[in-house]
Write a structure and sequence with these properties.
The structure holds 2 protein chains of 2 kinds. By secondary structure, chain A is α/β, with parallel strands linked by helices. Chain A has 11 helices and 13 strands. Chain A has a domain of 87 residues. Helix content of chain A is 32%, strand content 23%. In chain A, strands 7-8-9-3-10-11-13-12 form an 8-stranded mixed sheet, sandwiched between helices. In chain A, strands 1, 2, 4, 5 and 6 form a 5-stranded antiparallel sheet that branches. In chain A, strand 1 and strand 2 form a beta hairpin. In chain A, helix 3 packs across helix 4, helix 4 crosses helix 6 and helix 6 packs parallel to helix 7. The longest helix of chain A has 18 residues. By secondary structure, chain B is mainly alpha-helical. Chain B has a domain of 180 residues: Orthogonal Bundle (MetI-like fold), CATH 1.10.3720.10. In chain B, 78% of the residues lie in helices and 0% in strands. Classes of the chains: A alpha/beta, B mainly alpha. At the A-B interface, helix 2, helix 3 and helix 6 of A face helix 9 and helix 10 of B.
Chain lengths: 332, 305
């Protein structure tokens, strides 16, 4: 089946005082219609910048390059800001991490919900309003019509994030990028929002890139997972492959950090990964994880390729598949 | 919104009352007004006669009550100097000053807000440098000197506009530019700073993510939030222009209320000074009220404060 979104060898570089920051170093992925890709990684691994790069929303100082960046067969890599603005919100939209600050305090919810639809589809205000109301209901907001004249400061964080989700759906985009949409919310709201996103996605047949550091969230929604470390994918595969048979030491380390009900004994120590993410200024020499990896060897000094080890399951490590499979991450 | 409005209105009334008290007390702060009025070489009996004639012998509160009561009906007494009702003097001069002030603030807004926005959109660009240059010059150059330079160039040498007076709209061009330019740096710098901050806000990214056109992101989503502090500053600047245009009015012989106030002070013409102080203060209070209301319209969060 034709790929909806196709990204090949995406790089982001940001000149900073101390040199050239390379937060995204050669990311590739494909997304089919209706599919959910989770990009997982710890803070600062470049996952948010990856999504902003795809949306064309990088900070001005950042430079993006890619061998391929296509949405539904259309090349996005050389579009002007004006052309790109015709695609954003229309074919591809985004939900952000911070619901408290992501809505404009000066305009009503209704205005902010409808303006994208009016801009992209040229519909009448009343028609846009009706769509806004039906989407607000769909994201579980009661008395939706009475919310339209309200201002963001009159809504709670959970409500605002629902409004943001409804906003991203207004033009029925092909792809939604959700950048940690539940991180700023409390756990009960998180669960509701995740369930809702999942249902909406199935109902509307959108593809989704879901960015998170929370493996619990990933388990709920992912079809495919990409584990990101120091600006590059270290392991990619189907969700069950990553969860049931993780290969990369980093992935195993991450998984050992979450308690599993029934498996993790009460009072036992959870795993942790010692050390910190390497500096991404001036590029990374060799494997980015080698300073923290218990299996480091001389060969790690040159960066290994992301290679396919089993059907659709790829791993970036010098160790061969059987060695990787025998690794058990010890709780530190 | 109504509650907000009533609250601000009440506050404004309170301020206006306080101001009236102060402007009345000024008469006594300057010393015994009877001595000043009686002039040099007056005998004690003369001074006493003046005191009784002007009613300075009455209790202060009674005098204030009488003055305030009359002032509310527009009667500020007669000018000591011109011997004509103060209200006529003021009514003749205020329109000139108001025209100048409004023209100048419009000029300042039209110059500084677009420049401030452009400077913020492209920081450190040529246009930003140009805006900075303009504002540094504006801050550093005394307005009387700037006024004289403009007169020399545009009135004397080029002859495009009259040198001085207040008979036609052409007389107001140079004073507008000089007075308006004076207010430009502050408004521009605040607009630029506000825009720089707002453009980094998450909701601007949201607007861009929705595919809103760049110009609309700038003027609909960013500017409205960025100008909120600018509104207050502009109101203060306008108030200052109305009251403080003495120098500009003198240079261009515009003969407005600022000039009248300046002259009345040196003539010990207390009723005129009191009336002008009260009127300027009331205008100031009114401007602040308008700024508050405008801000409440711009930012719904303020309405609930």
């Amino acid at each position: 089946m034709e790929h909806l979104l196709s990204v090949e060898n995406l790089h982001v570089e940001i000149p900073v005082g101390a040199g050239l920051l390379q937060p995204v170093r050669g990311i590739s992925f494909d997304l089919k219609k209706g599919e959910t890709l989770c990009i997982v990684g710890e803070s600062g691994c470049g996952k948010s910048l990856t999504s902003l790069a795809v949306m064309g929303l990088l900070p001005k100082s950042a430079r993006r390059s890619a061998d391929r960046l296509e949405l539904a067969g259309k090349d996005l890599s050389n579009l002007s800001e004006r052309e790109m603005s015709g695609i954003r919100g229309n074919d591809m939209s985004m939900i952000f991490q911070e619901p408290m600050t992501s809505l404009n305090p000066a305009y009503t919810i209704g205005d902010q919900l409808t303006e994208g639809l009016i801009r992209h589809k040229g519909v009448q205000r009343s028609e846009a309003k009706n769509r806004a109301i039906s989407l607000l209901e769909k994201v579980g907001i009661t008395a939706a019509a009475s919310r339209l004249p309200q201002f963001p400061h009159q809504l709670s964080g959970g409500l605002r994030q629902r409004v943001m989700i409804a906003m991203s759906l207004m033009c029925a985009p092909d792809v939604i990028i959700a950048d940690e949409p539940t991180t700023a919310l409390d756990v009960t709201i998180q669960a509701q929002i995740l369930r809702m996103v999942k249902e909406l996605q199935a109902e509307l047949g959108m593809a989704m890139i879901f960015i998170t550091h929370d493996l619990g969230v990933v388990a709920r929604i992912a079809d495919k997972i990409a584990v990101m470390y120091a600006g590059a994918f270290v392991e990619t595969g189907a969700a069950e492959q990553i969860f049931n048979a993780p290969m990369h030491p980093y992935t195993k380390g991450l998984l050992s950090c979450i308690p599993v009900p029934g498996k993790t004994e009460c009072g036992s120590r959870l795993g942790s990964i010692p050390g910190v993410v390497p500096s991404l200024i001036g590029g990374v020499q060799g494997c980015g994880f080698r300073s923290r990896c218990p299996y480091t060897q001389e060969a790690c000094a040159s960066e290994p390729e992301l290679t396919e080890r089993a059907g659709g399951h790829a791993c970036r490590c010098v160790l061969d598949t059987s060695e990787l499979n025998s690794i058990i991450w010890e709780a530190a | 919104m109504l509650r907000f409005f009533l609250k601000r209105l009440g506050l404004a009334a309170l301020v206006a009352f306080t101001v009236s008290l102060i402007s009345f007390s000024l008469l006594f702060l300057a010393g015994d007004p009877a001595i000043a009025l009686a002039g040099e070489g007056a005998t004690d009996a003369d001074i006493e006669a003046v005191r009784i004639q002007y009613g300075f012998d009455r209790p202060v509160l009674e005098q204030y009550g009488g003055w305030l009561g009359n002032a509310l009906t527009g009667d500020f007494g007669d000018s000591y100097y011109f011997k004509t009702p103060v209200i006529h003097l003021v009514a003749e001069k205020i329109p000139i000053t108001m025209t100048l002030g409004l023209c100048a603030i419009s000029f300042a807004i039209l110059l500084s807000i677009p420049l401030g926005v452009l400077a913020a959109v492209k920081p450190n660009s040529l246009i930003d440098r140009f805006a900075l240059f303009l504002s540094v010059i504006g801050q550093a150059m005394p307005s009387f000197w700037f006024g004289l330079i403009l007169i020399v160039i545009f009135a004397v040498n080029l002859g495009w506009v009259p040198v001085s007076g207040s008979d036609s709209w052409r007389h107001f061009i140079l004073p507008t530019v000089v007075l308006g330019y004076y207010a430009t740096p502050a408004i521009m710098r605040l607009t630029r700073a506000g825009m720089l901050e707002v453009l980094r806000a998450d909701y601007i990214r949201t607007a861009r993510a929705k595919g809103i056109r760049p110009g609309k992101v700038l003027f609909k989503h960013a500017l409205r939030n960025a100008v909120i502090p600018v509104v207050g500053l502009t109101a203060v600047q306008l108030g200052f222009m109305l009251g403080g245009s003495v120098i500009i009015e003198s240079i261009f012989a515009l003969n407005g209320a600022g000039f009248l106030a300046f002259e009345s002070i040196s003539r010990n013409d207390f009723p005129t000074v009191q009336a002008l102080i009260l009127i300027f203060s009331l205008i100031y209070v009114l401007l602040t009220l308008l700024a508050d209301l405008l801000n409440a319209w711009l930012d719904p969060r303020i309405r609930e404060a």
